[in-house]
Amino acid sequence: MISAELKEQYYEALVAKDSEYEGLFYVGVKTTGVFCRPTCPARKPKFENCEFYETAQQALLASYRPCQRCRPLSHPNQVSDVVRVLVEAVENHPEKRWKGQDFKALSIDESTARRQFKKRFGMTFVEYARARRMGLALKNIRSGRTVIDAQLSTGYESGSGFRDAFSRIMGAAPTQVDEQNVLKASWIDTRLGPMMAVADEKALYLLEFVDRRGLEREVERLRKRTKSAIVPGVTEPIRSIERELAQYFEGTLTVFHTPLFWLGTPFQKSVWEQLIAIPPGETRSYQDIANALGKPTACRAVAQANGANQLAIVIPCHRVINASGELGGYGGGLTRKNWLLTHEKQAPE
Predict the structure, then answer these.
(1) Residue 139: is it exposed, middle or buried by C-beta count within 10 angstroms (0-12/13-18/19+)?
(2) What range(s) does the HTH araC/xylS-type domain occupy (predicted)?
(3) 248-262 pLDDT, tens per residue?
(4) pLDDT digits over 114-172, tens only?
(5) For the chain, which terminus, N or C, has the lower number of CB atoms within 10 Å?
(6) Would you state the torsion angle of the CA atoms of residues 98, 104, 109, 114, taken in this order, to the nearest 10 degrees?
(7) Ramachandran sector of residue 281 (left: φ over 0; alpha: ψ -120 to 50; beta: rest)
């Protein structure tokens, strides 16, 4: 039973189209007979015409039909047909430089492609295709091909243009990549909204909600600290965490096994070890963790290390609350933090 106070909170989130509430509730609209997700773009109903449900199944059982605009039975931010077709086209010909007639051949409007890719990936389609093309160039260079071969294979006639574009995306000139790592970035749909995963072929480096404030700075900091190129793609650790996240949200998994790369100071790593040691369904305060480390006066440093965690859910910083019992902060939003804690308490042993 959803309380009156929570209904008011949900209605405010509905009006604001707050993505933090994705997967937490669905709203049935009495006047239309449809039910929607919190971020539905349709005109908002009056509060008295809303009924709120915790699951889509409850809304269906109440005789509401799914909205055709926000598609509440699909994943939040599910890939549109336009995005899917273009991503497949890029994978089929990653070296291609896209022009106006290429979009027309697929019956896709350029401005639509730009807008949908910006919303989905945080970059326009042209930027996405360029990043994929540059990733291919980097692979060619690392496999022994000359810079000029890589330049021509990616469609650049000007050497300076190729080097400038390469540097903007990869963070290094093509002649400086011999010792450089390559990290792949991929988007993973979850019940609470899409997440970004960044990994190499061995370990996961970053896992964050896409709408987390400051995510762009986190990715840029990761790229600089690892001296890596970050390009769209998938690796085995990304496939692994996608499988495990699905099991986690289904309530069938509580411990993650995907290999992790911890990019932090020795103190930060010691805090993250304490986070992983917190059993699912339980919480600790910053002071509890400081005491466990044998540094009872390091409460503030513990909080900073907790905030520096770039592996959301897997390193469970959401299990740390204030000593007063209040939730405290969380990069993914307090609504998600509360949902995660409640979810873990309900999970079977």
Answers:
(1) middle
(2) 104-180
(3) 999 999 899 999 999
(4) 888 877 766 788 777 776 666 665 555 455 555 455 444 445 445 555 455 545 555 55
(5) N
(6) -10
(7) left
Would you state the pLDDT for residue 266?
93
Phi and psi of 194, rounded to 5°? -70, 145
Between the alpha carbon of residue 245 and those of residues 65, 176, 256, 309, 312, the distances in Å are 28, 36, 8, 18, 11
Phi, psi of 154 (to 5 degrees): -100, 10
pTM for this entry: 0.66
Structure tokens at 31: 């006047």
Q: Is 67 a catalytic residue?
A: no
* Listed residue (70, 72, 39, 67) closest to 57, CA to CA: 72
Which residues make Cβ contacts (< 8 Å) with residue 192, sequence separation at least 6?
Answer: 22, 23, 24, 76, 209, 249, 332, 336, 339, 340
Radius of gyration of the chain (CA): 23
